[in-house]
Specification:
Length: 315
């Protein structure tokens, strides 16, 4: 990865892609930003709109609408293209429609000579990330999805609100599918260094545990509620993409719950799922195994089975 010029390519200039682009610009995350869309005119308009805000930004970013050949020297290609999730539609319902879209994207990206990292946002993100890895032939450590990064942020926000604590001091994760089978391993949840479940014993266990269960359900159904209210979700995932991008370009070795291939961790093989990982400039440096309880391992296993079934229906 070149230190002198951080280059990101976004494929798909819909609301997710452009929320991400807007966030990249405001946080001055990269030096060169390329927008690619099947509707070239739209990509050109989006690039123009972003460029007009450069005078107000702390960035000298170069932004333009490009072609797949522009992926050749990119550090990261971020795929946000795909059909939108409809009201009442599960993420897995999107699978077959979005799989065809990806077939038309991955081949020209890899043909350009691209040798960076793939980051996937399109839903169902875990399966789409695995499809990206399969079609590209890339080492799985160089292909990741947003996974449960946004779900984890939602969890920490809600827990922080309930516990009257800064969400940044809440260390808890959502794991598994970014979807209906995701779960919270409460045995691993901490407020600073104190296990959150111990707080239940101090504050009325029945009431506390019920609230935690309610919070987990709120996290699981958040996207459906947002889609019902405004037809789509994009700001949160745009910020999640930006956080992952910063971890990559900054070689941070940060722990984020991205969608990564499991190769024996948690007893799971050859499946992409949202798990805590150490992220650096080379992608997923390693999956960080947590000490899950037998019940939590079972939940993760069921979630991974759901993801395998969805993928097997395509390949």
């Amino acid at each position: 990865m070149r230190a002198d010029k951080r280059k990101v390519v976004i494929v798909g200039t819909g609301m997710v892609g452009m929320s991400y682009a807007y966030c990249l610009l405001n946080q001055s995350v990269c030096d060169e930003l390329v927008l690619i869309d099947v509707n070239k005119k739209r990509a050109e308009g989006e690039a123009m709109d972003l460029n007009h805000g450069l005078a107000f930004a702390n960035s000298s970013m170069t932004i333009y609408a490009g072609e797949y050949d522009d992926c050749r020297d990119a550090d990261i290609v971020v795929i946000c293209a795909g059909v939108a999730q409809k009201q009442g539609e599960t993420r897995l319902d999107l699978l077959k429609r979005n799989a065809e879209v990806f077939r038309s994207i991955i081949e020209p990206v890899t043909s350009s000579g691209f040798n960076g990292l793939f980051l996937v946002a399109t839903n169902p993100v875990d399966i789409m990330t695995r499809i990206t890895c399969t079609l590209s032939g890339f080492n799985p450590r160089r292909v990741m999805g947003t996974g449960t990064a946004l779900d984890t942020a939602r969890l920490r926000y809600l827990l922080g609100d309930y516990l009257k604590a800064d969400p940044r001091n809440v260390h808890a994760y959502v794991m598994g599918e970014h979807g209906d089978s995701e779960f919270v391993p409460w045995s691993q949840a901490l407020l600073a260094t104190k296990p959150i479940l111990e707080l239940c014993g101090e504050n009325g266990e029945a009431v506390c545990r019920q609230r935690f269960d309610d919070i987990e359900e709120e996290v699981r159904t958040a996207a459906y509620k947002i889609i019902e209210a405004k037809n789509a979700t994009y700001y949160g995932i745009g910020m999640a993409l930006t956080r992952i991008t910063k971890a990559i370009l900054g070689d941070e070795h940060s722990v984020l719950t991205v969608s990564a291939m499991l190769r024996g961790e948690y007893g799971q093989m050859d499946v992409f799922a949202g798990v805590p990982c150490i992220i650096n400039q080379n992608g997923v440096q390693r999956v960080l195994p947590l000490s899950l309880t037998p019940e939590e391992l079972e939940k993760l296993g069921r979630s991974c089975d759901t993801l395998r079934e969805g993928y097997d229906g395509i390949f």
